[in-house]
Amino acid sequence: MTPHAAPHHAFRGTGQEVQAITFAYQRSPDQDAAVPVHHPVVIVGAGPVGLSLAIDLAQRGQKVLLLDNDDKLSTGSRALCFAKRTLEIWDRLGLGQPMVDKGVSWNVGRVFLRDEQLYQFNLQPEEGHQRPAFINLQQYYCEALLVERALQLPLIEIRWKNTVVGVQAQAQGAQLTLDTPAGAYQLDAGWVVACDGSRSALRELMGLQAKGRVFRDRFLIADVKMVADFPTERWFWFDPPFHPQQSVLLHREPDNVWRIDFQLGWDADPEEEKKPENIIPRVQALLGPQAEFSLEWASVYTFACQRMERFVHGRVIFAGDSAHGVSPFGARGANSGVQDADNLGWKLDWLLKGRASQALLHSYATEREHAADENILNSTRATDFITPKSEISRLFRDQVLALARGHEFARRLVNSGRLSVPATLVHSPLNTPDAEVFEGRMQPGAALTDAPVQTADGRPDWLLRCLGPDFSLLVFGDAPAWAAGLPHVSLLRVGVDLHDAQALLAQRLDAAPGTAYLIRPDQHVCARWRQPTESAVLAALARASCALN
């Protein structure tokens, strides 16, 4: 069952106060040991990905050492848009509600050409979902809540100002050399997970590369504090009158802060564009001459879509931006990184508990490399549409935008950033293919959709909150007697343990009496049947967990 939401008191305050928090360096006894001390799991990087993975493993009973080369939270909004699937993952970690409470929820986006709205869209048009399509939440608030949750878990140790400066592969792990304010020391790790960002030190130390495409364009992010009556929506302009021949994106953040992305062009000087005297006129042109605002943070960035060839290298595993990177339009960076952690956590746990072979860990690479390719494809298409690099591409883009005023087919071609959705792992080796006909999207490999339910005692709840920490077998109606004895499987009977009061669960899963779904610990479907047999379920469970013989 999902843990209760963690209390979140320690990091309350304004954005400036939260960003000013520092975490004291503390000398570890490991630094005085005669020989390097062994740690079963070492995670490098205390950003959203590393913290999410550490919390997941600790909740599963694993001891985790988390290293970070800094002593403070992120500066500026950075990763801002967190998707429904990420919120569902954080629900399982006890953090979904605090994130939503602090964030700004939204479902609607609008696309403009010059000063005319082309169309609007709703990313979650149907009722019956606990979480919104997205929240906007500055990365430093996200990290603050994650750190606070991590500090509540005694199995997590965080060492600040511990910089990895060396890594040496060993037969049963890796030896890390760390630099600290008190000098260097070494430790041994059974498994190392690199969550240390796009400039990954571990990747560089191992002589590995992320390869892909860098786009010849620059964008300015400006966090602007103001009181405005814009709705809580995503607004995207092509060729607006206040910033002609370029594009602009507007998002609302907590604390009356608004994020504005201005396309600048490749020839823009990043240092000049970050100066307030150059940012303020751009913002004033958007808001009007009478608008009052102040600048909170600014950054200039270049798009890049790239990934490592392989995410698993012996006992060193890469996740998040250290493994793959995309352009910001579409909010696919941090969301895909948290989904990496969600995919990896249970697999590493099962391996450490001796329940599975290393093939389960290698399925992390297979699945998340596929997800990275999907994100890169979507991000590349969006970037090519937003910033066409040839006359033919620009002509195509402009004609699509002109047609979108009155034609639905053209609106589907407009690409201001296809927004993050969880990858459907269709070709995963952990899936058991359907042997019967099902309708809908909940095929093996899909992240299970949520739906409102009632518990056996009549309390309202949500399906995803009711799933077990390991596998779950969801059966519509009475379950066979053997179903209660499956190893590491929670049995949920719809109509007995849960009630589908609004019939949305049966509708979304195309279920009839007797239908059963086998759900992985990361809430992905791995098999489904109209009338399951014990042998079929056991075979699917063994396949999905790469069980030891």
CATH third-tier fold name of the domain at 15-23 and 37-103 and 133-211 and 305-377 = FAD/NAD(P)-binding domain
Q: Taking Cα atoms only, what radius of gyration do you get, to the nearest Å?
A: 24 Å
The beta-strand count equals: 26
Helix/strand-derived class?
Answer: alpha+beta
| Shape verdict | globular
What is the mean pLDDT?
Answer: 94
Question: What do we call the CATH homologous superfamily of the domain at 15-23 and 37-103 and 133-211 and 305-377?
Answer: FAD/NAD(P)-binding domain
Write down the CATH class of the domain at 15-23 and 37-103 and 133-211 and 305-377.
Alpha Beta
Strand content: 25-35%
Q: Helicity range of the residues?
A: 25-40%
Please describe the biggest sheet, giving its number of strands, its sense, and whether it closes into a barrel.
Answer: 8 strands, mixed
- What's the total helix number? 15
What CATH architecture label of the domain at 15-23 and 37-103 and 133-211 and 305-377 applies? 3-Layer(bba) Sandwich
Terminus-to-terminus distance: 29 Å
> Stretches where pLDDT falls below 50 for ≥5 residues?
1-9
Q: Could you explain the architecture of this structure?
A:
- Helix 2 packs parallel to helix 5, helix 2 packs parallel to helix 9 and helix 9 runs antiparallel to helix 10.
- The two termini are 29 Å apart.
- It contains 15 helices and 26 strands.
- Strand 13 and strand 14 form a beta hairpin.
- 28% of the residues lie in helices and 28% in strands.
- Among the domains are: 228 residues, FAD/NAD(P)-binding domain, CATH 3.50.50; 94 residues, 3-Layer(aba) Sandwich (Glutaredoxin), CATH 3.40.30.120.
- The radius of gyration is 24 Å and the shape is globular.
- The strands form five sheets. Strands 1, 2, 8, 9, 10, 11, 17 and 18 form an eight-stranded mixed beta sheet that branches.
